[in-house]
């Protein structure tokens, strides 16, 4: 830990070179020293998750978590419907065909079309407005799809759903990441992803029950899409706004009140409140590109920004192409390839899978703050490669020997293990890591760009997987083995660790010559100095550029 004396000396030297700025950009020596002292104070005050302030925070996050439930339900309901004979017969489809691929893909196309609007809504109107907009559109889409009489109407409803979910997918995790307590950020954001599992569980078991409700039973799960989106619609305006968004609007006192209430136990002098306010005031610009809806240049104009963008776009793509889309969307088809032909058994196994993945997701949410982001990603991805290598021969043998239940059960076991491994790390980390590596002025637009890459990657893989399964069957998994090995190399050399730092302190990591190496070094008081002065410098450069 760097000493306070060293920080004080460095601060006094830096103050000689400082000039007058607007209130929210000034970083006087006292503020810097106070922030550095706060770091050392926090080293001796381990935050408790059971305080009144934290329980207030949990209540706030619970409402934002409804955005994850909405995404989880909408994203999983089609996987179950795709195994229902009544649904397939009504629209004259097959479970693995080009028409089925289009039904899945149109959801992603709707998401892509929404993305130019998501960033501006979040930056100009706030994170709550983004969640409200998404919930409203999802409600409209759910009504259209549940009342569908033709394939065209069904596709239109899926498009509207994808459009609305794009707002929820970006606004909700950004709000959670920006308001979460920094000590528990990994866990709290991981729980956000886990709550998508609740939506998935609801979807799969409602579909399972709907198969017994007659030829129109397939509509029941579609009506249930209104539940989480309706609750989000009703309660989103009861939430506090993101303190980082408030600072970006120049509303410092409002931001400080949010931090005092949810991070500082009601104490304006709490060390964490001082630390976060000092770092946010130094780093967040009130005239940044988030005020100009058309300007995405801050995402790549500096070396540090480009390193952030590399992490964002590769995470967005890897999360879809590592093989997870197969288990989330085409699990019934994978079970068919493993020798399971009964509709009831496929739906039951699909339902059990969602429960297990939810539990894995919860475990992963806690492990992120225990073992770190990088070890969890690298370990689980390596295990996924091993699972695919085993699934190929066992699925082949099970298909050729349908009477051999032991080999079929082995295939199913490793299909489940693959999914559980992925949900242990990638499901909780995918939205969280993207939010962490972006700074406040680019977070909404960067998350929108990540969602664009996610939607494109998801659309390609879901549309291509259906005919690929029909042509290649279990040999399709070999392609994912090669791709996942490439992902391991990229993660090891280019993705820094984000555990144990505030969002603002990650500026020091990405500004370093080797961000991965820097991220593995312990945090010190000097980290606060670097975060504040680097942030102040970047804000000045940005605002000087904007003035020109």
TrEMBL record:
It is found in: Membrane. GO terms for molecular function: carbohydrate:proton symporter activity. The keyword Transmembrane helix applies. It is a multi-pass membrane protein. It holds the Pfam family Sugar_tr. Residues 1-28 are annotated as: Disordered. Its main location: membrane. Keywords: Membrane, Transmembrane, Transmembrane helix, Transport. Belongs to the major facilitator superfamily. Sugar transporter (TC 2.A.1.1) family. This is Major facilitator superfamily (MFS) profile domain-containing protein. It comes from Penicillium crustosum (Blue mold fungus).
